[in-house]
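hiii, so i know i said id send this last week but things got crazy w the move. better late than never?? heres the sequnce for the chain we talked about at the cafe, plus the structure i predicted for it. fair warning i was half asleep when i ran it
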Amino acid sequence: MTKTALDGRRVLLVEDEILVAMLVEAALTDENCVIVGPIGDLAEAMAAARSEALDLAVLDVNLAGEMVFPVADLLAARGVPFLLLSGYGDTALPADRPHWPICAKPFNLSNLVSRLSELVTDK
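okay and structure toks below
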């Protein structure tokens, strides 16, 4: 089995749509990632972002009407790379955070895995 950039990485998965969470979790498990989550609630995601040992995160922008940006801020402060997922594309980014990486829903799984790999190899 070939090692990939994601092999063994601890990935926080924050997604409130169960089918999307299952799809992403399966793809990352195939890459030999250790999944923290999936988490579908902002308070629980904040707690995980504060306390878990993490290498990377996948964050749904909108969690049942609450924006995930406080989680992204926590992760950024810790130096943990993340990728935002949004059905709104890059228009969902806060005006003061246009540099945050975002992936539009629906997404291609191989593209998602490639983008996540780039985040950890660029680190």
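btw Helices lie at 18-30, 42-51, 69-78, 109-121. thought thatd interest u
miss u guys!!
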